[in-house]
Amino acid sequence: MKKKSIAVNALFNIIKTCASIIFPLITYPYVVRILEVKDMGNIEFSRSIINYVNLIAGLGIANYAIREGAKIRDNKVKFSNFANQMFSLNLIMTFVALLGLTMVYYFTPYLHSYGKILSIFSIITVGTTFVVDWINSIYEDFVYITIRNIIIQFIALVLMLTLIKNKNDYLVYVGILTFSSVGAAIPNWFYIKKYCKLKFTFHIEWKKHIKPIMMLFAISVATVIYVNVDSTMLNIMKGAYDNGLYSAAVKIYNIFKNVVAAIIIVTVPRLSALSGKEDAKESKRLMKLIFNVVLSMVLPLCLLSGLLSKEIIKFIAGEKYVLAAGALRILSLSLVFSSMASFMTTSVLLPNGKEKEILKASITSAVVNLLLNFVMIPKMSFIGASLTTMIAELVMFLVSYKAAKKYIDLSEMKKDIMKYVISCNGIVIVWFLISYYFNLNGIVYILTVGIIGMVIYGLVNLHLWDIDIKKIFSKCIVGRKNND
Q: What is the 3-state secondary structure (H, E, C) of 132-195?
């Protein structure tokens, strides 16, 4: 198979992520201004429940399939057999998960008021199984994934703007969210035939697959607990209104988080393949490059999100969500820890088969988050939930880095890290000067600080890294002429 450029893959995955950010930036402000805060809280609570169901249905199969499938993707026969087993296992677990949801719902009166929302969201559980995007990821087909997702997001955008007209349309919103998550199932089912033809089989090599899959499943359980438990516990302890406010801050936090994840996720197949070939030198070079790219993005994003938290909340969610600004400031700092933790687990430990270390870090973070939530949510509501998330992400990073030091040592990259930190000072200066001398508000203020701040950040970085722009530009011109 022809090797695809990681830079191109990352670019298209970032385009896909940007699209998944731009569309919600249009639809979310529109929706939250129509629907009630309480209804938004109920929707987020129901979605957190479905995330647990999806966790059981997924069983860590996608991550395992990407890692192992990347090693045999050039062998059509082996890969088809492997893919059929993964799909069949996923289908079986989907049935088990939905059966479990039905039983829990029946015996838990508290959930009965969420029945309609849960019923619609449960379609995501089934649809995700048939999307089988892990096959496209194995073959690094991020161009197709990007184009397909943009089309689905555009359709969802049109549906939201045309169908949601008053506060009683919250179920319509749930349905459109469901479509945006699994609308790709039908087109993707036909598209993947270029790689393999999936069919259900009972001939699953349980002995071979179940142990590593269960290890990844345990990691997913711990991860989902420390990612979703805040919303679940906040809704139960403080009610749908507080959870609705918190959901606005989390929505923005996840937007930035997804941008960083877009870069990290495309490296898994290539790093897994390098691991299989035992190419330690190339693997280490690639990991260092990814770390620099991630850090160069996450630090200014974190800083801008924190400095402009109140304005961002007001612009995206409206004045009635302004109390969530404090939560966003805390989550902005959490973005640094979560991105670094994601890098350590996804780009370093997972490709090298260190699932036990990832599990250890995930369980530690989940326990810390769960215990702190019991203490901090009753006293501080959504601010407490934000603090526990930040602490949990920090713990995740520290524990995973301890295991990853064998493959990448951040102490060797102190100068690189310091350059990004110094460059961030330019953003702070820009923010202070514009805030002090100009009376700007809303999107104008956000864009002014954001654009000028990022330009200054970029220029300082160019100076500190001693990058010759003229030389790069002249090479690009010469290269273009040669191609012509």
A: CHHHHHHCCCHHHHHHHHHHHHHHHHHHHHHHCCCCCCHHHHHHHHHHHHHCCHHHHHHHHHHC
Q: What pLDDT score does 398 carry?
A: 93
Q: What is the pLDDT of residues 132-165, one digit of tens each?
A: 888 888 887 878 888 888 888 889 989 999 999 9
Instruction: pLDDT band for 66, please (50, 70, 90 cuts).
Output: confident
From CA 449, how far away is CA 307, in angstroms rounded?
Answer: 10
Dihedral over Cα of 153, 219, 360, 250: its sign = positive
d(CA 235, CA 219): 25
Rounded Cα gap, residues 63 and 70, in angstroms: 11
Segments making up each domain of the chain, as ranges: 6-408, 416-484
- The 8-class DSSP code of residue 77 comes to H
The three-state secondary structure class of 78 is helix
Residue with the two structure tokens 């009630």:
36
pLDDT tops 70 at residue 274: no
Per the model's pLDDT, the better-predicted residue between 15 and 433 turns out to be 433
Number of residues that this document lists for the chain = 484
- Among residues 132, 229, 183, which one has the least CA distance to residue 23? 183
Helix (H, G, I), strand (E, B) or coil at 244: helix
pLDDT value at 481 more than 60: no
Residue 304: both structure tokens together? 């801008």
Tokens of 267: 């490296």
Distance between CA atoms of residues 417 and 296, nearest Å = 9
pLDDT of residue 236: 86
| Residue range 340-363, pLDDT digits in tens | 888 888 878 877 778 788 888 888
Average pLDDT over residues 204-230: 82
Question: Which run of H or of E encompasses 198?
Answer: none
Residue 440 has pLDDT above 80, yes or no: yes
Q: Write the DSSP symbol of residue 59.
A: T
Give the separation between CA 25 and CA 169, rounded to whole angstroms: 19
| Tokens 């996804």 found at | 346
C-alpha separations of 227 from 18, 70, 279 in Å = 22, 28, 34
Distance CA 443, CA 367 (A): 39
